[in-house]
């Protein structure tokens, strides 16, 4: 648990960590980590928008807040938790191979 | 703060009568694998395998009367925890690694996944390498008749062909072709000429086709298909992470294997290794691996390979 904000801090997701020579750590530097999270959120929003979902970072940069157009929200920590939550909020399994999603990404229509 | 897992782990699998135990005993007796504990899983209530290998290793434990990939999975995890306790108390001296010899009908993927997701064991064991022993005489027929044999070959890092001294060379060459079609990511060797090492896993799959973040479908099977991708420019790691995590979540059951090395923009080479829903922590290799050598292999079942390549391209576009 973080002593400052009281958040439960889990193990970093594989997309957010670097493993070199058996040493496990997050990406070097807080600014790099925040920058990667910002870019991840932007990409996620383009993917989620097709299914009427959106995601925002919390102020501390440790959680994501996922929501649907009906006002339901879930707080998740990383990508491993985002997809099951997105399925629940969308009421269906989100599919990265979905032709409609791919067409939207390819044409920039999202 | 970092740490290094203490013990290497290998899942040794193979169909009934394929020669798993003989292979294991030979490697242990060769003296190149000192400090090895073996966990033998037997479908029957009583088995003989532990009698065969117990004299050749530092410790031999048995899980009998069920299969460790399904109904005896908890027992396997408990056995490994006890083994770990004994290791930390110094019972075995210099233990280097553990080999799990599965039952002949086991699917090795759930075993590797159970260990990699266990809150204790995953911190103490290196991600499991899977070695599949196949019968040089009977494998071709078994691949047609028994889905378990195909599953074992599909998920293996190394495939070892046994009984090559009893089968003619043409038959073995044909079998090797069939196996490399099923699993091009695995190294294939025979018990006669193999490295006889139990640990370590090959990181780089073989691939023969080139595409610009695009597709080269190598092999199509009735159910399984293989896709090899090569990349002409580095991939955006953030977009790749979003894409692969979503793909594994949505299609883990159909993705039998994802393996390879990619060149990630700004990060260098990253080794990727996933079995179904489970992805091992990608290893950032540091330095440039070279985009001409970067490749990613997907072994899929009931999944259109072309759509995977299209999807990866589309996600990279929005990076």
Your description of this structure?
The complex is a heterodimer of chains A (110) and B (319). Residues 19-25 of chain A have low confidence and may be disordered. In chain A, 37% of the residues lie in helices and 20% in strands. In chain A, strands 3-4-5 form a three-stranded antiparallel beta sheet. A two-stranded antiparallel ribbon of chain A has the order 1-2. Chain A is α+β, with helices and mostly antiparallel strands. Chain B has helices at residues 20-29, 49-53, 73-88, 108-117, 139-145, 147-154, 169-182, 237-251, 305-317; strands at 8-14, 36-42, 59-64, 97-101, 129-135, 158-162, 187-190, 216-220, 224-230, 255-264, 268-275, 278-279, 283-284, 295-301. In chain B, the strands form two sheets. Chain B has a seven-stranded parallel beta sheet, with helices on both faces. In chain B, strands 8, 9, 10, 11, 12, 13 and 14 form a seven-stranded antiparallel beta sheet that branches. The longest helix of chain B has 16 residues, at 73-88. Chain B is globular and about 60 Å long. The two termini of chain B are 31 Å apart. Mean pLDDT of chain B is 81; it is low at 202-222. Chain A binds chain B through residues 13-20, 22-25, 36, 39-40, 43-44, 46-47, 79-80, 82-84, 93-97, 101-102, 105-106, 108, and chain B through 2-5, 237-239, 241-243, 245-247, 249-251, 267, 279, 281-286, 303-304, 307-308, 310-311, 314-315, 317-319.
Listing every helix as H and every strand as E from the N terminus to the C terminus, the arrangement of chain A reads EEHEEEHH
What global shape of chain B is seen?
Answer: globular
Structural class label of chain A: alpha+beta
Q: Give the CATH class of the largest domain in chain B.
A: Alpha Beta
Mean pLDDT of chain A: 84
Which architecture of the largest domain in chain B would the CATH scheme give at its second level?
A: 3-Layer(aba) Sandwich
CATH topology of the largest domain in chain B: Rossmann fold
- Radius of gyration of chain B, whole Å: 20 Å
Identify the strand order in the major beta sheet of chain A: 3-4-5
- Succession of helices and strands of chain B: EHEHEHEHEHHEHEEEHEEEEEH
The biggest beta sheet of chain A reads: 3 strands, antiparallel
Low-pLDDT segments of chain B: 202-222
Give the helix/strand class of chain B. alpha/beta
| Total beta-strand segments of chain B | 14
Name the chain pair with the biggest interface and residue counts per chain: A-B, 34 and 35 residues
